[in-house]
Structure formats: structure tokens, C-alpha cells
């Protein structure tokens, strides 16, 4: 059974996606070790960036499923790649369990691709309208149905949670299987049209397109290796430079400034007040109290005295004796 010719444009698109994912994970590492102030895991812009990359990956996985098996399922090739994906998924689960036991990856990108590939085979040859209906349902259903049952890890991989359980990467069936189905549908439509020959004829001619195509062909291996390599660079740098010490000053000043201005004090006075407060926290070694909220009576007395002192700095009249 012959396979279709490789579409270089798909490899190029996958290469762009793997670079984008590496950039995201690098920034996540920088955020985790406090090299940057952005909360990459929760900031809406970063979350949108991550979900866009994920959607592209799953869409392209659907395209590849059709390109590889559209003329008939090549079971030997399918199982060989599928077992490699499963092995990679298990490796990620084990590695993250030891590194982040409270938020380890138990159903991430590779877990999803392994399951979605099995489910997707059923739609490689079914009527297109059926795939479109199922895709629409899979994507839409989580917006209309949720239940606390799915907040638990054992069921969360389905995707109908109300509060997602802690995990560094969670790609549930609903709605993300819909992204792969869209890729399957798109690939089948293209192959049935006159665009197929034109797209197949596109060949990377420049250095950058050839590099992207190369990265795309090895995207799975790169996905498995890039994060250990990045962490191998960022972790020693964090241990040496200790960016969390400098970053906690920034975080304290930002939080203090926001709270101060919300109380009606001018921005300029708040800058002075917060700088005074930061010096007091450092002098009295109150970081644990400030960061955890667990304050002893002695620490509370120091914080109260510090607050009075800093208030007197911006409002000298408070120092006046009656």
C-alpha cells in the first residue's frame, strides 16, 4: 500500500509551531524561576498564545493522519509511531511527577495525541459531514455542560470541569479532539480538490524554509528533548543568579503601589511609601510574613510600627505632637 508524497508545507508549519512552543516553554521556565515578572501560566495573553500553539499542533496532527492513512490505514506504521508517542507521554508523566508532584502532567499534549490518533482513525474515511458534526459538538459541549465530578483528576481528562485540577499541562478530549477533527476534515477537503497537487509541489528553497521543514519532520523528538535542555540551562542560572530575590522586591513594590493608590493616595507618594515599606521588610527580615501571610505577634508589631513610620514619611503632620 503506497503512501502519499510528503507535503513540505505541513513540515514547515509544524516547524513554526515547535519553535513557538519552545519559546513559550522557555518563557514559562523564566517565569517559574522568577527571571521575568509575567505569570506565564495564568496571564491571559500567554494562555491565549499557548492554546493557539496547541490548536495548531492538534490540527496538524489531524492533517498528518489523513496524509499517512487516507488511502488506507497503514497499521504497522501507525502502531510504530503511536507507541513512540505513548512512550514519550509516559516519560513526561514520570519526569514531571518527580519535578512537580502537585501538578505533574498526567494528560498532556502527547497523551492527547495518542488518544486522539486512535479516535481520529474512525474519521479518516467516514462522510465529511459526520466529522464536521462531531467536531462542532466536541468543541461546543464544554461551553454548555460542566459538573464538579470532572474537577477530579481521574475524570478531568474529559474536560467538563468547573475548576480544573492543578497540572502543568492538561489537554482534555473536550474541546481539543475537535481541533484534530478539523485538521482531518481540512486535509480531506484539500486532497479532494485541485489544491492538492499545488501544495504537494511546494518545496522549501531557502535556508529558513529548509530549517523549518527539518524541525517539522523531527518535531516529536524536539518536543521530548527541548524542555529538559531548557531547564538544564535555566535551573543552574537561577541557582547562580538567584533572580527570585530581585523579583520579590519588584513584586512587593507592584502590589504595595496598587494597594496604596487604591486607597486614594497619589502615585508619587505611594512610591515613597512603598520604598520605605520595602526597606523595613528587608531590615526586619519580614519576607516570610509578607509572602505567606502567616504572621506572629512580634512580626505584626513590627509591621504596624513600620506602617506608622512610612505613613509619617509621606504625611509629616502625623509626626506632629498635639
TrEMBL record:
InterPro entries reported for this sequence: HGSNAT_cat (IPR012429)
One Pfam family this sequence matches: HGSNAT_cat
Domain Heparan-alpha-glucosaminide N-acetyltransferase catalytic: 6-228
Transmembrane segments: 7-26, 46-67, 79-98, 104-123, 128-145, 173-191, 211-235
Domain of life from the UniProt record: Bacteria
Alphabetical UniProt keywords: Membrane, Transmembrane, Transmembrane helix
Name of protein: DUF1624 domain-containing protein
Organism field: Devosia oryziradicis
Amino acid at each position: 500500500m503506497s503512501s502519499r508524497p510528503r507535503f513540505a508545507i505541513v513540515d514547515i508549519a509544524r516547524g513554526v509551531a515547535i519553535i513557538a512552543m519552545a519559546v513559550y516553554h522557555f518563557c514559562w521556565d523564566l517565569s517559574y524561576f522568577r527571571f521575568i515578572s509575567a505569570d506565564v501560566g495564568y496571564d491571559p495573553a500567554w494562555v491565549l498564545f499557548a492554546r493557539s500553539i496547541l490548536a495548531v499542533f492538534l490540527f496538524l496532527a489531524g492533517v498528518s493522519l489523513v496524509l499517512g492513512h487516507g488511502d488506507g490505514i497503514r497499521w504497522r506504521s501507525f502502531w510504530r509511531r503511536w507507541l513512540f508517542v505513548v512512550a514519550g507521554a509516559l516519560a513526561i508523566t514520570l519526569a514531571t511527577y518527580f519535578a512537580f508532584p502537585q501538578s505533574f502532567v498526567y494528560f498532556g499534549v502527547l497523551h492527547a495525541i495518542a488518544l486522539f490518533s486512535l479516535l481520529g482513525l474512525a474519521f479518516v474515511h467516514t462522510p465529511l459531514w459526520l466529522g464536521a458534526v462531531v467536531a462542532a459538538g466536541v468543541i461546543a459541549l464544554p461551553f454548555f455542560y460542566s459538573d464538579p465530578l470532572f474537577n477530579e483528576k481521574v475524570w478531568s481528562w474529559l474536560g467538563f470541569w468547573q475548576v480544573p485540577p492543578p497540572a502543568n499541562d492538561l489537554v482534555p478530549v473536550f474541546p481539543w479532539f475537535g481541533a484534530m477533527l478539523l485538521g482531518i476534515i481540512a486535509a480531506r477537503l484539500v486532497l479532494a480538490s485541485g489544491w492538492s497537487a499545488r501544495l504537494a509541489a511546494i518545496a522549501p528553497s531557502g535556508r529558513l524554509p529548509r530549517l523549518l521543514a527539518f524541525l517539522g519532520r523531527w518535531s516529536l523528538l524536539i518536543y521530548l528533548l527541548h524542555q529538559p535542555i531548557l531547564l538544564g540551562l535555566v535551573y543552574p542560572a537561577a541557582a547562580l543568579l538567584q533572580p527570585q530575590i530581585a523579583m520579590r522586591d519588584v513584586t512587593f513594590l507592584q502590589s504595595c503601589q496598587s494597594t496604596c493608590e487604591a486607597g486614594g493616595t497619589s502615585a508619587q507618594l505611594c512610591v515613597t511609601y512603598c520604598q520605605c515599606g520595602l526597606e523595613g521588610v528587608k531590615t526586619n527580615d519580614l519576607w516570610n510574613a509578607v509572602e505567606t501571610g502567616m504572621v506572629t505577634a512580634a512580626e505584626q508589631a513590627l509591621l504596624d510600627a513600620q506602617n506608622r513610620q512610612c505613613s509619617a514619611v509621606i504625611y509629616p503632620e502625623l509626626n506632629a505632637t498635639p
